[in-house]
Amino acid sequence: MTTYVEQSGLKVAAELHDFISEKALPGTGVAAEAFWSGLAELIHGKGPRNRELLSIREDIQAKIDSWHRDHRGQSHDADAYTAFLREIGYLVPEGEPFEIETENVDPEIASTPGPQLVVPVMNARYALNAVNARWGSLYDALYGTDAMGDLPAGREYDAARGARVIDWAKGFLDEAAPLFSGSHRDVVGYRIVQGGLEAEILNDQDFRAADATRKATDEAPSGEAPIATHSIALADPTQLLGWQGDADAPTAILLQNNGLKIELRIDRNHQIGSSDKAGVADVVLESAVSTIMDCEDSVAAVDAEDKVLAYSNWLGLMRGDLEESVTKNGKTFTRAMNPDRVYNAPQGDVTVKGRSLMLVRNVGHLMTNPAVLDRDGNEAGEGLLDAMITTLCAMHDLQREGGNSVHGSVYVVKPKMHGPDEVAFASEIFDHVEDALGLPRHTVKLGIMDEERRTSANLMECIRAAKHRVAFINTGFLDRTGDEMHTSMEAGPMLRKGAMKSTLWIKSYEDRNVDIGLACGLKGTAQIGKGMWAMPDLMADMLDQKIGHLEQGATCAWVPSPTAATLHATHYHKLNVLDRQAELAAGGARGKLGDLLTIPVHNGENWSDAEITAELENNAQGILGYVVRWVDQGVGCSKVPDIHDVGLMEDRATCRISSQHMANWLHHGVVTRDQVEQVLQRMAIKVDEQNANDPEYIPMAPGYDTIAYKAAQELVYEGTAQPSGYTEPVLHKRRLELKAVS
Ligand SMILES: CC(=O)SCCNC(=O)CCNC(=O)[C@H](O)C(C)(C)COP(=O)(O)OP(=O)(O)OC[C@H]1O[C@@H](n2cnc3c(N)ncnc32)[C@H](O)[C@@H]1OP(=O)(O)O
Ligand SMILES: O=CC(=O)O
Ligand SMILES: [Mg+2]
C-alpha cells in the first residue's frame, strides 16, 4: 500500500515526497512551497490538455482504421489516401521556411559529431559507466569483441591477437592523424619539440633517398654511417592539442581529428607498452560524446519506488556525486564519475571533458503513474512528473562549475510525440516548469524523437513548434516501425519484420529527417541523430554498416554500450559529417512525403509455412525473453538471444514491433490463435532454458499461466487495441500485479 502525503492539493507518495524535500530541493534555491504548487498547477493545468491530445490520437486512429476497412479489396489510391489524411488533420499544412533559434547549446550537441550512448538510468552501475564512456580504449574494444572478425579464444592474453589490435589501431592513426610521411606503425618514440609532435622513425638508406622532406634529428654528415632515427611531424601539426608528462618523454599525447580527440597513452613499463616499439600502451578515443540517461523505454518504472530510483540516479549524475560499489572479476571497487583531463600545451594547460554530455529521456505523453495523485484521485501524467522533477534535479548542475552543461542548459529528450500539437504541448510544459523553478526561458532544450508516423509526416511543423528549444531530432526507427504497423493495422498483413529495412517508407523517413533538419537550420546548433545499433555483440557488422548513418548526414547515432561507442567513434574520424551535411544540403531534399506514406503491407506473395513459423517464433521469442525480465525482475532493457542465438537488444520499442506484428498477422488471418498459442508455448520453453542459470527466474512452462506469460499473451491478443500499439499499459499493469503479490 502506498502511503501518500497531502501537498498543494496533490497526494504524493511518501518516498517521492521525501526524495524531493530532502534530496532534490536543497541547494537549488527553490522553496518547497513553490515546487509543490508549481507541480500541482502543472498537473491540474496541463493534465486536461494531455488527455485531450491522447483522445485526438485515438480519434485519428479510428478514422484511419475505418478508411482502410472501407477500401479493403480495392487497389490503394495514394492520392485519395493523402487527401483523406489532410482532411482529418493527420497531415497539417506546411508553413514558411524558418530556422531554429535555440541558444546556449553545448558543443557536444551543436558542433561535435560523435556517438550517442543510451543507458537505463535506473542502473547506477551502467549509468556511471556510460557517463565515463566519453573516453574508451580502442585496444580493449578491438581485443574483446568480434570487431576484427573473430572473438578472443580464451581468458589469457593472446599476443598474436594483441599484435593484430595494435596493427589495426595504428592503421587507424595513419588515417585519422597521419604523419607527414611514413606510418605510426614504424614509430619508435614520440616527443614534443617546440610545441610540435615529432615521431621518431628508424632510418633506412632507401627512406633517406626517397624522402628529402623529412627532418633528421641526428643527421650524419654525408658518406658516414646511416643515422639511427629521424623525426617526422604530423601531416597537419595543428592536430596536436596537448600532452602529459615531459616533452621529451610524454606519457600521453592528445590529438584531434574532425572535432574528436584521440589520446596515445605511452608507458614503456606497461604490459602492452613494453613490447611496443613506441611504448604505446593504448589508443584511447573520445567515444560517447553525449549520453542519454533513459527514464523511458529501457527502464521498468511503474510506481513511486521505481521513479525515486530513476530520479535519485539522475540527481547524483547532475550533482556529480553518484557512486556505486561494483564487484567485477572477484574485486570490489567504487565506481564514480571521472574527472576532466588536463594536458600541457604550448599556450598553457588544456582541459578537456572527462565525462559524456548527459541528456535525460523523459517518458512521453501517454502514461500516468501512481507516485502522485491529482485532486480527483487520478494518477498524474508521468511525463508531467518527469518534466518537473528531472529539471529540478538538473538545477544542481546549473549551479556548479565544470559540471555537465557549460552553457547552462538542461537537455530533455521527449519521445513518442504524435505531430506538432504534441510537440507544442511539450514545449509549454517546459515553459511552466521553468516559471515554477525560476529558470530563464528556454533553459530546457528539447530532443524530439521522430519516431511516430504523424511526427515524421509533419516534421517541419514539429520542429517549428519548439524552435527555441530544439537541440536534436532523432530517427527512433524502432518505435517508428511499431507505429507504422499500428497506424495501418487495418490496411492488411504487414511485410515480414526483416523486410521493413528495405521499404520505401523507411528510406524516405531517414532521408527526410535529415533534409528537414538541415532546412530548419539544425546544422551547427542541434543534433540530427540516427537510431540504435540493436545487436550489441556484432561489432564487426556495426563497424561495417554504421558509417552509413554518417553518410546519411547524421551528426550522432545511438550505440548500446561504451565499447560500441568507441568503435563507432572511428567512423567520425573517417568521414567529416559537417562536410557531408553541406554536400547534402547543396544537393536538395531527397525524401518524398509520398514515399513516406506508402504502407508496408505484403504484396500478395505466398509465404511458406516455414517462413510463417520462423516469423512467429522470432517475434514470440523476443517478446517472451523481454517480458520475463521486465515483469518479473523490473529490468527494462535486456539482451535476448534470437532464434539464431544472436543476442539482440530488446526494449519496449522492439517489443512494440514484435507484438504489433503478431497482432497484425493474427488480425488478418495469416495465422490462427491456436498457431500463435502453440508458438508462444514452444518459445516459452526455449526462454526458460535460456534463463535456467538465473536463480531469480520464474519459469513459464509447463503451466503457461505466470504473470509474465499472460503479459506476452495480452500484448499479442490485445495488440490491435493498445494505444498506438504501445506496450507500456500492459507491462505496467502486469509489473504492478507482480509487485503486489510478491
Ligand atoms: C529503441 C530505443 O529506445 S534504444 C534505447 C534504449 N536502449 C538502451 O538504452 C540500450 C542500453 N544497453 C543496455 O542496456 C545493455 O547494453 C544491454 C541490456 C543491451 C546488454 O546488457 P548486458 O547483457 O548486461 O551487457 P554485457 O554483459 O555485454 O556488458 C555489461 C557491461 O557493459 C556495460 N554496459 C552495457 N551497456 C551499457 C550502457 N548502455 N552504458 C554503460 N555501460 C554499459 C556494463 O556497465 C557492464 O560493464 P561493468 O561490468 O563494468 O559494469
Ligand atoms: O527510441 C528509439 C527507437 O528507435 O524507438
Ligand atoms: Mg523509441
From TrEMBL:
What does the record give under GO molecular function?
magnesium ion binding; malate synthase activity
Q: Where does glyoxylate bind?
A: R361, E451, G476, F477, L478, D479
Per the record, residues carrying Cysteine sulfenic acid (-SOH) are C637
Enumerate the UniProt keywords alphabetically.
Acyltransferase, Cytoplasm, Glyoxylate bypass, Magnesium, Metal-binding, Oxidation, Transferase, Tricarboxylic acid cycle
Subcellular localization, as worded in the UniProt entry = Cytoplasm
Q: In which pathway does it act?
A: Carbohydrate metabolism; glyoxylate cycle; (S)-malate from isocitrate: step 2/2
Question: Which HAMAP family does this entry report, sorted A to Z?
Answer: Malate_synth_G (MF_00641)
What this protein is reported to do is described as: Involved in the glycolate utilization. Catalyzes the condensation and subsequent hydrolysis of acetyl-coenzyme A (acetyl-CoA) and glyoxylate to form malate and CoA.
Q: Which family does it belong to?
A: Belongs to the malate synthase family. GlcB subfamily.
Self-association and partners: Monomer.
Official protein name in the record? Malate synthase G
